[in-house]
Amino acid sequence: MDYNEMNEIASENGLQFVETTVGFNGYPQNVKGAIIGFDDFAEAEALSKETGLRLEVISKKDGWQLWYRNGNTANGPLKITEEDFGDDFRFIDNEENFYENEIKPFLDDFDNIDDLMEFLEDKKSIEDELCTLEENDVVVTCNGKYYDTINTRPMRFDHNGKSWAIALMQ
User: pTM of the full predicted structure?
Assistant: First the structure.
């Protein structure tokens, strides 16, 4: 399948055609096309069966023109964990016991009302986000403060200057 055919498949399905390399530094080497932009894994799997293209995980660093491929077969959506973020980050996935675990044990740690209020405002923003979670979503905190709300099973993930995506490849 050539670039034009893959580009046409991407266009017809509202997806994105990208170029990939085997050069680990993003340098053009054995350049091939890929299709990304899927809403979920079922959509990618169906198009894979229809076109005969295989599913693979590709990655890219900010500033690279090309995505990097290394033959990692994708058997499902990406799996994002706390380890992908670092030591200061935590995932919270439900509201149950939030007060008991995240607020109550720390209430005696404050010497003045201003610091206590700042702490409670931070925790309130986390609790507000917890109320909006959908399947596979988590609230990400950094040093106890709200950082982001993410899907832990996405088809594409961008963080800290790097991106990963599930792609259809030849």
Answer: 0.86
